[in-house]
Amino acid sequence: MLKRIHVHDLTLGMFIHEFCGSWMEHPFWRTRFLLTSAQDLQRIRATTIQEVWIDTTRGRDTAAGAAAVTRDQASADAQALLEQSQQLAAQAAAPPLAPTTMAQELQQAIAICSGTRAAVADMFHAARMGQAVDVAATPRLVDGISASMARNPHALISLARLKTANEYTYMHSVAVCALMVALARQIGLDEATTRLAGQAGLLHDLGKARVPQQLLDKPGKLTDAEFDVVRRHPVAGNELLAGSGLHPQVLDACLHHHEKIDGSGYPHRQAGAGISLLARMAAVCDVYDAITSDRPYKRGWDPALALHRMAEWSRSHFDNLLFQAFVKAIGIYPVGALVRLQSERLGVVVAQSEGALLAPHVKVFFSTRTGRRIPEELVDLAQQRAGDRIAAREDPRHWPFGDLAQLWSGRPSLRW
């Protein structure tokens, strides 16, 4: 049985199934192992991870009276939190339809991603060379991303998630900028503050220019000393941006985007309302893009699975209202998510349905009954006549599909 316990209740002989948090928060290259080392136990307790999943069939169980949550309970709670977003969406007035389709916007989004990525790379290069970082162009870069998302709110976000491990650092900045803009608009921030949110997303990881590249690209586990170096990047970024003329809200979000709502984050262990709005927003956007992206040491999670895991962590990691707004902005089943329908067909999400987060537009292409590809069909699950619904999310790693990006984008190649 899988049980979620606090790290203080973790003892030697337990089998760790999963850490309750993203892999950016701990130095272990593996997440499933029998805990036999007192040093490893101490290292786990020294991280910002507060809870872990243990498998009682493969190791020791919890002591009598120790607080624990089963996977079924946690999954039900997470699904309830996600579905609250659906209820909020149903109560809200539907926004106007996007003026361009995904296919129409992708070409412009590719050019915007390419230009913004190059600008971010220049800023990182200047920082590595000890030169002053010129942030004067960031408002214009954010405006370009904002304009693309106004035309179609999902094209650029979906595109920016498709990054190789070699370009992760730069494209991650582009993706978090786009996600910050989407979240800012979802919660009704004015355009000036939305631009600040986008700037924070674009610059939040600049401090990684002070982290040796071999640590960022290391395929195995980090030593404690190496992990400490990586975790200093928010402070390093704050030092690099000091005197740049950026708005204080942007500087604060860059410094505090790894703080957690329960006070267990870093660098200053801020908690609750003590964390600024933009920093709380950046915490959500940063984690989502990180865990859905391929890294040298970890395959990215499917978008729908990532949201489900984040919902499980939300009580300690994130501002719940902001997380719900984030889900509402990108969808419970984001574009690119692989899903199984009740009709025993698999499909990839290609667009959202306004006010119906559980019923997106899906391109079906595979039958689990026959185990074969079928003619592609676009299904709008929000239409009653569709006669189908999502039964479960699917992990693409369990299926031999190499063309999911092509299926949702309609393009044979996506490069910037």
UniProtKB/TrEMBL annotation:
Residues 145-342 form the HD-GYP domain. PROSITE patterns: HD_GYP. Pfam families: DUF3391, HD_5. It comes from the Bacteria. PANTHER family: CYCLIC DI-GMP PHOSPHODIESTERASE PA4108, CYCLIC DI-GMP PHOSPHODIESTERASE PA4108-RELATED. This is Cyclic di-GMP phosphodiesterase. It comes from Comamonas faecalis.
